[in-house]
Amino acid sequence: MNLSKILKNGLLVVVASFVLTACAVQKKTTLAQGDVYTGTDSVEYLASGVKDRVFFATNETVLTTASRETLRKQAAWLRKNSKITIVLEGHADERGTREYNLALGERRANSAKDYLMTYGISSDRISVLSYGKERPVDSGSTPLSWSKNRRSVSVKAN
Amino acid sequence: MIFKYLILFLILLPIKAFALIEVDITRGNLSPLPVAVSPLSIDENSKESFSKILKKENIGLEISIIVENNLRQTGLFNPLDKDAFLQKPDIANLKPRFEDWNLIKAQALITGKVTFVDEKLRVEFRLWDVLAGKEITALAFTTVPSNWRRVGHIISDKVYERLTGEKGYFDTRIIYVSEEGPKTRRVKKLAIMDQDGFNNKFLTLGNELVLTPRFSPTNQMVTYLSYFRNLPRVYLLDIETGMQEVVGDFPGMTFAPRFSPDGKKIIMSFAKDGNSDIYTMDLENRIVERISNHPSIDTSPSYSPDGKYIAFNSDRSKYQQIYVMKSNGKNVKRISFGNGLYGTPVWSPRGDLIAFTKLHKGKFYIGVMRPDGTGERLLTENFYQEAPSWSPNGRVLIFYRETKTNSKGEGFSAKLWSIDLTGYNEKMVETETDASDPSWSSLLSN
């Protein structure tokens, strides 16, 4: 299951980087690549250069290239600070039914968790909590707002 | 002698043909039945006693207003203005002068009487067919005075049942989630109110996030999701005693709970390691059974009223769609095949339809389809709405709707709405605060 997910992620990375290079020039001003938020609004830092969150496409739980880079940095930081435990809080945007979004948030957080685990972080240092669409960071009703809300946030638990 | 009988017979015959006031509720009713709800008559002593206890000047009038409002809300009846009534309540209740009621075009007349007897409220009421000139239903009962609003609801149920041929839904309550505060930091509490919005009561304090309360068919219990101690779990709450207990204490998140039709089990989703499946828990022996087993998201389960099937939504075909399976998890069949995503299937208490939420091209719809997926009918379209819940007679759906915010992210609100199964009579349900996740109880009486 984990392996197939990682392979799937890998495939997406290839496709995504393709798209990224194609769009990078024209879309510099927008903050979302396709459907995935790429800006830094609402982003906080666990440590210098270590972003606390990753973003997702609508109805998706796969990690983008940027997300994987963020998570690798988080993993490195966690390896250095071996006493820290984290909660991965998974979220969805408001454009879905409440219950499905709870499940989706859980899946997104686990997608981040699986990736951290492949970079050597033990599962007992990571817990997962889904908020579904209950805790948006952006209260707007626009595709950009929704893209900021589709996220998994790593929160220090101790 | 024979001649006399013959005349009588002849006169009765055409009248009998009129004695059929009946309301067709299977279609959208564009000409609601004109009905006169006379204030219930009340003697001076009773009036005084009730006004002391209930702080209501004329309880007979108040009860008739409850009936009037209930009937108007259905969209099937048109309660006439009381100012036009020619007959006094006490006389009307004894023997209405039908010509007077006919004159103001009332087709049905409701009269009654309230008295204060041994510290109790005694009520009698009669439903009259004005054209036929006869009583078609009568009922008398006694209850504690504090139940006076329920008296109005019970009368409404009897009237509705007699005139439509189907059970009413007025003596019922709605449990919902009360919402306050900014969208990014919403405070949510469980709240309960009578079906007409009165007697609102908060059941939790708002210290933790609560979602998706659902009534048990037995009415005493509610199951819901609480984030108590940041552990999202399914809970059971006894509304009468206020006792709460966790039922879905699994090593992960439990959510999307509902009762089985007999009230003995809770069906819910359990999410672990990125996968949500459907489980049941027997409330007596606490035995947990896994019902679905699939790497996709399976959630929002709802039993058919006979308990033999379960409708749920799953993204096993990539996007959220509605499926039906046997209650043991076998024979899974997809039933939604229209354009868009489908979620929150809820089986009608009559068993013939499944209500759902649909998302298509950026719009949300509440609709119904048969359990085999045929006959899809969309009742209402909006920016955001979901979570239909059926009235106990399966004629009306209540759901919640959220508004779009402006460019500054302001102006968010969530409200309850109801709509007739026909797609007519869409109405906002007034609540003290913003509201979501409504669940309709079954009838409190009988």
Question: How does this model look, in words?
Answer:
The complex is a heterodimer of chains A (158) and B (446). Helices cover 42% and strands 20% of the residues of chain A. Chain A is of the alpha+beta class and 158 residues long. Chain A has one domain (2-156): OmpA-like domain (60s Ribosomal Protein L30, Chain: A). In chain A, strand 6 (86-91), helix 3 and strand 7 (126-132) form a beta-alpha-beta unit. In chain A, helix 2 crosses helix 3. Mean pLDDT of chain A is 86; it is low at 5-29. Chain B has 446 residues and is of the alpha+beta class. Chain B has 2 domains: 2-164, TolB, N-terminal domain (Rossmann fold), CATH 3.40.50; 173-440, TolB, C-terminal domain (Neuraminidase, 6 Propeller). Helices cover 16% and strands 42% of the residues of chain B. Chain B contains 6 helices and 30 strands. In chain B, strands 1, 2, 3, 4, 5 and 6 form a 6-stranded mixed β-sheet that branches. Chain B has a 4-stranded antiparallel β-sheet with strand order 9-8-7-30, with no helix packed on it. In chain B, strands 10-11-12-13 form a 4-stranded antiparallel β-sheet, with no helix packed on it. The two termini of chain B are 48 Å apart. In chain B, 47% of the residues are buried. The chains are: A alpha+beta (158), B alpha+beta (446). The interface between A and B is large, with 31 and 47 residues.
Briefly say what this structure is.
The complex is a heterodimer of chains A (158) and B (446). By secondary structure, chain A is of the alpha+beta class.
Keywords:
heterodimer; A: 158 residues; alpha+beta; 60s Ribosomal Protein L30, Chain: A; 4-stranded mixed beta sheet; two-stranded antiparallel ribbon; 8 strands; 42% helix; globular; B: 446 residues; Rossmann fold; Neuraminidase; 2 domains; 6-stranded mixed beta sheet; 4-stranded antiparallel beta sheet; 30 strands; 16% helix; 42% strand; disordered N terminus
Write the layout of secondary structure elements.
The complex is a heterodimer of chains A (158) and B (446).
Chain A: H1 2-23, E1 32-33, E2 36-37, E3 45-47, E4 50-51, E5 53-55, H2 65-80, E6 86-91, H3 98-118, E7 126-132, H4 143-149, E8 151-156
Parallel strand pairs in A: 6-7
Antiparallel strand pairs in A: 1-2, 3-4, 5-8, 6-8
Helix pairs in contact in A: 2-3
Chain B: H1 2-18, E1 33-37, E2 41-42, H2 44-54, H3 59-74, E3 77-79, H4 89-94, H5 98-103, E4 108-117, E5 120-129, E6 134-143, H6 148-164, E7 173-180, E8 187-194, E9 201-202, E10 210-215, E11 221-226, E12 233-238, E13 244-246, E14 253-259, E15 265-272, E16 275-282, E17 288-290, E18 298-303, E19 309-317, E20 319-326, E21 333-334, E22 341-347, E23 354-360, E24 363-369, E25 377-382, E26 384-390, E27 396-402, E28 414-420, E29 427-429, E30 434-440
Parallel strand pairs in B: 1-3, 1-4, 2-4
Antiparallel strand pairs in B: 4-5, 5-6, 7-8, 7-30, 8-9, 10-11, 11-12, 12-13, 14-15, 15-16, 16-17, 18-19, 19-20, 20-21, 22-23, 23-24, 24-25, 26-27, 27-28, 28-29
Helix pairs in contact in B: 3-6
